[in-house]
Design a protein that fits this description.
The structure holds 2 protein chains of 2 kinds.
Chain A lengths: L1 H8 L7 H8 L3 H13 L25 H24 L7 H8 L11 H4 L22 E2 L6 E2 L2 H10 L7
Antiparallel strand pairs in A: 1-2
Chain B lengths: L4 E7 L3 E6 L7 E4 L2 E3 L7 E2 L14 E3 L2 E2 L2 E2 L2 H16 L6 E6 L6 H14 L4 E5 L1 H12 L4 H4 L2 E7 L4 E7 L2 E2 L5 E3 L3 H15 L7 H11 L6 H8 L10 E4 L10 E2 L2 H4 L22 H5 L10 E4 L2 H10 L11 H10 L6 H6 L1 E4 L8 H9 L11 E3 L6 H10 L4 H4 L1 E2 H7 L1 H5 L5
Helix pairs in contact in B: 3-14, 5-6, 5-10, 11-13
Classes of the chains: A mainly alpha, B alpha+beta.
The structure holds zinc ion (2 copies).
One zinc ion binds next to loops of chain A.
Chain lengths: ~170, ~425
């Protein structure tokens, strides 16, 4: 039983590469926010994804899948030959949405054309931001001078400094 | 029906809802991902991840979606293949496909998707739809005398897995130029809850499945944040929010659970009018110190929650609190309405439909109404309806459309795809 708890709590936390880059920036506060938002999109935040060999990545399928899957495989090879050239350079790892978005070059669309970019809701009209302590959740009076995160009292500040501040533990 | 099977696939970033057109409910609702349990070399997918006996503690997760869009076609087709053969038992080459895609899908993604549909699975024909128009269609059919169907108009608020869309629908089409998006959905909420719990009690950063469960069972929307924060500082019975979640131990139970479900429901007894309930015991200066939040006994394999329960869904209403530079849901709605013709404004405010899994938090609609009302001109009515089943709503609309007599004519056939190519076929689906 205790094994289980340990298994979950002692897994090494690593600093993600993006966040290392963020740290290099001069504006810690902005970068801290960006890194934090990035973390909210992460599927496996606790661990740096060690890509195993990508080939045994496909989930193994049940036997009754075989029929369709084989069909799929043979089609798959056909597709591969057709796309072989493209694939040789851009191998394996699927591109992120932000990369695809960049390629789509939506900025070049005339302003009246609805698009992913234009649909973004935009900043809030009122700037009244309520401040909750990032440690305990209660209302926070203080702001960390290094990273801009909020805390309510010395006790939470210590926790912040020890575990959180500029560490971007994912 | 018997001559042509239509597979209806609501292909969400979080869940796939899959079934046969014409039926009331999808045959299957499964996670759109694959995960490898720590103890295994094998990736499990879709329904295999729902097994009650599978221990998914610290499982490594992969999703075909990133930020709401399909980026990994190989993984997606592996998951589809499993669904078609093992769960739906359909033969794609003798079926049509009704597929949902996110609003403003990129042409490169559409091309890759069409390729899977026609070249890999050999579907006979395809129809692609956005979600809001299907939600509208379903609601209009359920409430024929309501403004939704009389005006053929509604405002669909879809708080999904990857993002939230507010989409005006007019004459059964989504009004693209009126759509507004917040980059916040169920996934970010789960990750935020992970952060809070990991911070305060025990590291659960790797426990997506577990924390999803915690979120679904214990989170709710506060109707009065200031009051509820006060209550959350109290000790013992005076804290209506404190409850305990038991982690799996890998031996007697492989899933976590709420320790005392009755205790977890106590918050529902609070007055809706924002009164602060009488406190039995003391109330003095430094509540921080006195309440010792979440002293967790690790040997007990559990953690407790209090203000996290409502601070997590709070994100949707006030993303700025978290440092996100985007407006909250109520303002998002106002902006979507304002980008439509003024004649539509009153009708849209009167026909707001909530859908998507993240609208299931208790008190969601009530809170939204209280935030929205002050932003809307007094002469307009504000009416917010939650779908009967916010997770299945899109699929049910799709099922309805798939069984309509016009459906075949709306599809693109494999022959047309081969002749015209993806982008010309796509033009047919919208307008
Ligand atoms: Zn604090
Ligand atoms: Zn700091």
């Amino acid at each position: 039983m205790e094994d289980d708890v340990r298994r979950m709590s002692t897994r090494a936390r690593k600093v993600a590469p993006k966040m290392v880059a963020a740290l290099a920036s001069t504006d810690n506060r902005t970068q801290a926010i960006l890194a934090r938002l990035e973390a909210l999109e992460n599927d496996n935040p606790g661990a740096e994804l060690v890509e195993p060999n990508d080939d045994d990545d496909d989930a193994s399928l049940d036997e009754d899948d075989d029929q369709v899957f084989q069909k799929k495989q043979s089609k798959g090879t056909k597709r591969k030959t057709r796309q072989a050239k493209a694939l040789e350079t851009a191998k394996k790892a699927p591109r992120t949405f932000l990369e695809l978005l960049h390629d789509a070059n939506l900025e070049s669309l005339p302003p009246h054309v609805p698009s992913y970019l234009r649909a973004a809701v935009g900043p809030p009209s009122s700037t009244s931001r309520r401040d909750f302590c990032t440690v305990c959740g209660f209302s926070a009076k203080y702001t960390c001078v290094r990273c801009g995160m909020r805390f309510c009292a010395a006790r939470c500040q210590n926790v912040h400094n020890d575990t959180r501040c500029l560490k971007f533990v994912a | 029906m018997s001559s042509n099977v239509v597979v209806v696939l609501d292909n969400g970033g979080g869940l796939i809802k899959a079934g046969i057109g014409g039926e009331r409910d999808p045959t299957t609702v499964v996670p759109n991902c694959t995960a490898r349990p720590l103890s295994s070399k094998k990736f499990l997918l879709a329904d295999q991840l729902l097994s009650q006996t599978e221990d998914l503690t610290s499982a490594v997760l992969r999703r075909p979606f990133d930020r709401g869009y399909l980026i990994n076609q190989d993984l997606q087709s592996t998951i589809w293949s499993h669904i078609f053969s093992s769960l739906l038992h359909v033969t794609p080459s003798s079926s049509s496909l009704l597929l949902t895609e996110p609003l403003f899908n990129l042409p490169s993604i559409q091309r890759a998707t069409d390729e899977i549909v026609f070249e890999e699975f050999n579907f006979k024909s395809l129809f692609v739809s956005d979600s809001p128009s299907l939600v509208h269609l379903y609601e209009a059919s359920r409430r024929p005398y309501d403004v939704v169907s009389k005006a053929q108009c509604s405002l669909v608020v879809d708080v999904g897995f990857s993002f939230t869309h507010v989409a005006p629908v007019f004459q059964n089409f989504t009004v693209n130029y009126g759509v507004k998006r917040m980059d916040l959905g169920g996934k970010a909420l789960t990750n935020y809850l992970k952060e809070l719990v990991s911070y305060r009690s025990i590291n659960v950063m790797d426990e997506t499945f577990l924390i999803d469960d915690v979120k679904e069972k214990l989170c709710f929307v506060s109707t009065d944040v200031a009051r509820d924060l006060q209550i959350a500082r109290r000790r013992g019975n005076d804290n209506y929010f404190r409850c305990t979640y038991v982690l799996p131990d890998g031996i007697t139970h492989t899933k976590g659970f709420v320790k005392d479900p009755i205790e977890a429901q106590r918050y529902l007894t609070l007055s809706e009018k924002g009164e602060l309930p009488q406190e039995g015991a003391n109330e003095d200066d430094e509540p921080e110190v006195k309440s010792k939040p979440n002293k967790v006994d690790l040997t007990k394999n559990e953690f407790s929650l209090s203000n996290e329960r409502f601070l997590v869904p709070e994100m949707i209403f006030r993303p700025a609190d978290l440092g996100m530079n985007q407006a909250g849901l109520a303002e998002c709605i106002v902006r979507a309405v304002n980008s439509c013709h003024p004649h539509l404004h009153p009708v849209l405010y009167e026909s707001i439909i909530l859908t998507g899994g993240s609208t299931l938090f208790p008190n969601f609609a009530k809170r939204l109404e209280s935030e929205l009302r002050p932003l809307v001109p007094d002469v307009y009515q504000v009416k917010i309806a939650t779908q009967e089943d916010p997770i299945l709503g899109v699929w049910r609309g799709g099922s309805l459309l798939a069984s309509s007599p016009d459906f075949d004519a709306m599809c693109v056939t494999k022959a047309e795809y081969e002749e015209l190519g993806s982008s010309r076929c796509r033009r047919r689906f919208f307008h």
